[in-house]
Amino acid sequence: MLIRSFVGRIQKGLSLWPARSYFNKHHATTAVPDDVMEGYFAVLAINGDETRRFIVGLDYLTDPAFLGLLDQAQEEYGFRQQGTLAVPCRPQELQKILDGRKA
């Protein structure tokens, strides 16, 4: 399945790449923001003009609901995203997925 390959590449990239890019409205940069700690990565939930940035734990890479968003991202943007991972969903939808695991 393509998504497993995609998740594997993300996990490997996050563990091996010392400087990750993150989204800035003007450009991508290689500095890791202070709010992204080891074991986490940034995700942008984008729906039209509505965009919100989330800090997500690596353990969500095995969550079925989050993997569904990754499938949507692959369909929408392909595998060649640069910088912060973007998923095509309402920020409230991603927040609901993240809150569901905490309950």
What is the ordering of alpha helices and beta strands?
HEEHEH
**SS-based structural class?**
alpha+beta
Number of strands: 3
Instruction: Bin the strand percentage.
Output: 15-25%
Q: Tell me the strand order in the biggest sheet.
A: 2-1-3
Distance between the termini: 29 Å
Mean pLDDT: 79
Integer-rounded radius of gyration: 13 Å
Major sheet size, sense and barrel closure: 3 strands, mixed
Shape: globular
What is the percent of helical residues? 25-40%
**What is the count of helical runs?**
3
Q: In terms of per-residue confidence, which ranges show pLDDT below 50 for 5 or more consecutive residues? A: 14-27
Features:
about 100 residues; alpha+beta; three-stranded mixed beta sheet; 3 helices; globular
Structural summary, described in words:
With 103 residues, the protein is of the alpha+beta class. It has three helices and three strands; from the N terminus they run αββαβα. The protein has a three-stranded mixed sheet with strand order 2-1-3. Mean pLDDT is 79; it is low at 14-27.
Short summary:
This protein is an alpha+beta fold and 103 residues long.
List the helices and strands and how they pair.
Layout: H1 2-16, E1 40-47, E2 50-57, H2 64-77, E3 85-87, H3 91-102
Parallel strand pairs: 1-3
Antiparallel strand pairs: 1-2
